[in-house]
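INFO batch 0412 | record 1 of 1 | parsing
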Amino acid sequence: MAKSKDSIGNTLIVAISVSLVCSVLVASAAIILKPRQLLNEEEFRQRIIVDIAGFDQSEADLSTLFARIEPRLVNLATGEYTDAINLEEFDAEEAALTSDLGVAVPADKDIANVRRRAIYGEVYLVRSGDKLEQIILPVKGAGLWSTLYGYLAVDADALTARGLQFYAHGETPGLGDQMDKPEWRAHVDGKLLFDSNGEPSIRVIKGTVDASSPTAQYELDGLAGATLTGRGITALVHYWIGDDGYGPYLNRMREEAQQ
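INFO prediction complete | emitting tokens
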């Protein structure tokens, strides 16, 4: 007797064939679209940098505005600029995982739960003519539910914050993501990063900053219902402006600014 066309065997063959075809299509699409995806991600990061630099994005297209910013690579240990590798080919996340360009962060220094970092770091210099106006530093660290990725803008005095903006995170909507609101970000401008002893002191507090407090110059409003996210923001900023991050570079820039 001939097998029924609706037999289990035929059904499995059809199902497996359809699955294979779909897998090939999905894989092919991922490969084809990957360059465009990477380009979109890079354009998004550039837009954040341009925004935190204070440029009016209605004045010109993104590429024109970003061309006004000078990217440089810094040796984090020495704080000196380096041309050791091609900046256009440098990816800090990938470099951190390698044995020649990455290092493990000692547990006693890893306040932001970074684990590994690249030995070099990108900086973005914003100038008005020949005068340096601000320095933009990439920062990252653990929040409550996710790793926070963003940029910290520092005044040319290398002491004062000009802005802090995140471009990727998975914090709780309506709570941890309060840091994305323009109203909260506006409070960062003008806050001091370091105390009189040069120690990182800017921090997210619990509640609202008391303007009359002597420590108000270091404090940022808390994130209601997201205390742990606020602590994560404080920790990641302290790490990246500290001795194991961009601290040596900022020290050098402060010395130059005071000359």
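INFO post-check: The beta strands are 69-75, 80-81, 102-104, 116-118, 120-128, 131-142, 147-155, 161-168, 203-204, 219-220.
INFO record closed
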